[in-house]
Amino acid sequence: MLFGSKAPQSRSEIIAAADQARSKGRLNKAIAGYRKALELEPKDPVVHGKLAPLLARAKQAEAALQSFQAAAQGHLDKGFADKALAVYAQAADTFPHNVKLWQQLSQLNLSKGHRVDALKTLLRGRLHFRRKDERRGAITLLQDVLALDPTMFEVKLDLAVQLAGERHQAEAMALLNPLEREARDRRQLRRLRWALVRVAPSAGAWGRWVRAVALGR
Which of 34, 36, 54, 55 has the fewest CB atoms nearer than 10 Å to its CB? Predict the structure, then answer.
């Protein structure tokens, strides 16, 4: 070794320096450090988990998604499903309009036997798809909900309205028509009649909705 030359940083030192840069808000330096560490161990889920949100902040969405996926898969490969769940939850919160992330988070909950959490995840994801150009995402998530629990009355109403908005009126009516028998109370009946007005507006549909509001039938 030449006099005065420095030994190359170890991987742990590279990560520690990146951690320090992250704590000081030095975004680009932290990203560069974590990427350098990944050159030495490309599949490290912990480093990918640190890098992914920084890439998202740096507006590098595609790279951030890749790191989130690598982090989650790395944890799964090591048998750490709970850590993978945490990564997918962070990814979905970071990119809430990415349907695939909500589906992956839901499927992982389901694989662990957490069916209720899987349903809640899909329903929470659906809340982020409200604009007209986001209907396909809403439809996908609502269909996934009904695949897990086909009895959810309100979800069927929501899905029917979304389908009608995409000009799938026949599918929407196929969902709504049987619900007359499933309505458990006046509130559900009113909501059903209002959904019918939205899906297939007509004088008759308006009349049935008014009757449901006024008379509860």
Answer: 36
